[in-house]
Amino acid sequence: MRVGDEEGVNPAGDIQSVDLREGYEDFDFQVPFIVREIDEAMEDPMIDPVALQPCNFPLAMLMSWVGTGDTFVSQDMQTGTQYGDYRVNGGVMTATGYNDYLSRMTNRIAAAMGANITRSAKAYSQSSAFPTLQMNLPMLTGWIDEYVRNRLFDERFQPWLDEQWRVLLVDDVAHHIASVFASAIVEHEGNHVIGNAEVNYRLVSEVDSLSVNMKSSQEVRKCVYPVLPVSPRNGGLERAFMQWADGDGEVEAFVKIHEHRHSFLQHRYLKEDGMPGSYSPDFLVRTAEKVWIVETKAQKDLSSTNVKRKARSAKSWCDRINELESEQRSHREWKYVLLGQDAVESFRARGMKVSDLLDYATVTGDSVVQERLL
């Protein structure tokens, strides 16, 4: 007898493992992932550092902030009285400092683009075997050096002259350099021409069980899982969408994407601060002619810059899938829709179906549906 059985208490609480339902194949999703174009050759990425955005801070102002040389302060150890400061020229450390700066900035950008940050050494090893950043680091270092010398301050910059390299240590300057290169690399990743592609497929049913808090869950019929989790806080919109989709005769299948278990469905996007990030949309919904990637958001969150950036990334992913041959995407068109709470409540109140709302987004050409319709 396990501890807790005497009092009829389940040690696991209300968390239960929910397996795939019988006949789940009818509700499964086959998600295409483009591996490579058949005629595609791996080419070194080409970024023109001189074409990148310069820094907004004038060099003269930054130099006045950092001064020159190494600063020493004379202070009485007993009384704490400060007697003044003086500077000593950094000598050979000036040159070493700039080279070290280039190395650190290169590693900072490469680590951010690789996104191989995890507490598990095994998980880190696995993810690092297939790095996101497909370029050699010396090339990236050369771009950073050229950018610093010829574009950063929109004038010729000499790191060795009068210890000017010290201005690169200012937080805003370092952040700007990392951001412009991260942005340029992410934009380059999207500039692929689609031809006859080699495609691999992943199935939602690869995740054959979910851990669900039964106190915060929703029973469904048109899903590979008989029960789906609902956020215990502010999950009303999610639950309403599940119930709505489950009762729509036009919907063949739907699933709520588990952010961690369905990690292969995560999308990359460029965050507001210029650094790359990843996110998972809320739902996949399938009809006879379309597969919808659906994100549901509270009305106040629709204007968020990062939400809009995530939407652009997901829409770009759908556009790329739609350029595949019809048989490579199950003869369905892929669409992305960001649904605001007002739109969901308005359509439901009028007795309309979730597929009507999704089709409305297609007809209007608006992937962000947020207004309350009268």
End-to-end distance, in Å? 60 Å
Look at the helices and sheets and give the structural class.
Answer: alpha+beta
> Roughly how many Å is the radius of gyration?
27 Å
Strand percentage: 15-25%
Number of helices: 9
In helices, the fraction of residues equals 25-40%
Q: What this model shows, in words?
A:
This protein has 374 residues and is an alpha+beta fold. It has nine helices and 15 strands. The strands form six sheets. The chain has a five-stranded mixed β-sheet, sandwiched between helices. A two-stranded antiparallel sheet has the order 1-6. β7 and β8 form a beta hairpin. α2 crosses α4. The longest helix is centred in the N-terminal third of the chain and has 22 residues.
Condensed summary:
With about 375 residues, this protein is α+β, with helices and mostly antiparallel strands.
Short key terms for the protein model shown above:
374 residues; single chain; disordered C terminus; disordered N terminus; 32% helix; two-stranded antiparallel ribbon; alpha+beta; five-stranded mixed beta sheet; 15 strands
Topology:
Layout: E1 15-19, E2 30-37, H1 59-66, E3 70-75, E4 82-88, H2 93-114, H3 121-128, H4 137-150, H5 171-189, E5 197-203, E6 209-213, E7 217-219, E8 227-229, H6 236-246, E9 253-256, E10 267-270, E11 276-279, E12 283-286, E13 290-297, H7 305-322, E14 333-340, H8 341-349, H9 354-364, E15 368-369
